[in-house]
Amino acid sequence: MSRFTWMKVASALLLSGCAATSTMVGVREPDITQIKPTDQRSKVERLLGERLWRAGSSDGVIYDIYEYKMAQPAHPLLGSVWLSMDVLSLGTMTSARGISQYSWPVKQVAVAYDARDQVLFVSRPWSVNAAASGDYSLGTSAYSLKDIVPPPCRRMRSLLPADSGVPSNSRPSLLALAGSSSEVSTLKLDWLLGIKVTIDGRELEGRVIELPPGGHTVNDAEVEFLPGRKYGLKFESFGVGISAWEEVNWIEDVDSAETLFCFPPRYTTQ
Fold it and tell me: Under a CB-based contact definition with an 8 Å cutoff, are residues 229 and 185 in contact?
């Protein structure tokens, strides 16, 4: 067997093992009641992992959003079957079943910190996958995951529930850009964008543009760029079936990882 083939087999085993093992043994949610006021950020992130995105700060309080897998019961037989089939198919079954970061049900939670990275409060968790599914419907194809919010689209301020504890006036801090006035905003385009880009009705020339802060129209997206912040128009493709993908474009605050706008995903096959 060639080295390349062995690498494909090893990759399939790693991918299959993670997804199938989760299916076989189930998933337990982290116990967020272990997080208490005055705990340090390090304890929170040992339990929840690194923050998903930062909602910003207000009155000296910093608000970070975390995400984790929703609890699922164990399915030993089903997990064993998927593991066997996925190894034989070199990973294509995992993609077909959507057992991935794309489709696994998730919850999010907001944690507030003071300037010393000590916890002030922890919100109640909320489910994300069912939220805004009407806005981000992925079509009606046989391989479509139409009730799933794509990972980049989960990092949006509009998905925060009313009782998240994140105040509406929380915003990212202003950043000074090297070699530029702190009064401008910068937008950078990914190389692999599959869409033409216009800003305020004008076709964009080049991959990096400086803009005056405030409201702008990027294609059909109405977004607000803050002074001194760096933004990106991003692209990623997620496998949702055998030779089937959902291609997602979104506008992101590079430093906070907040998604300002998520374009409707496009379904493609090969």
Answer: yes
β-pairing verdict for 230-241 and 244-253: antiparallel
How far apart are the C-alpha atoms of 251 and 258, rounded to whole Å? 9
- Cα(122)–Cα(112) distance, integer angstroms: 7
- Residue 27 is given by DSSP the state B
Q: Count how many Cα atoms sit within 13 Å of the Cα of residue 33 in the half-sphere of its side chain.
A: 0
pLDDT digits (tens, 9 = 90+) for 143-187: 344 567 888 999 999 999 999 999 999 999 887 655 565 689 999
Hey, what are 173's tokens? 């801090």
What beta strand segments (E) does the chain contain? 53-58, 61-69, 106-113, 119-122, 126-127, 185-189, 198-199, 202-203, 208-211, 214-218, 221-225, 230-241, 244-253, 259-262, 266-269
Residue 29: which of 48, 10, 13 has the closest Cα? 48
CA–CA gap between residue 227 and residue 243 (Å, rounded): 42
What SS3 class is residue 41?
helix
Q: How far apart are CA 191 and CA 173, in angstroms?
A: 28
118, containing H or E segment: none
What pTM does this model have? 0.77
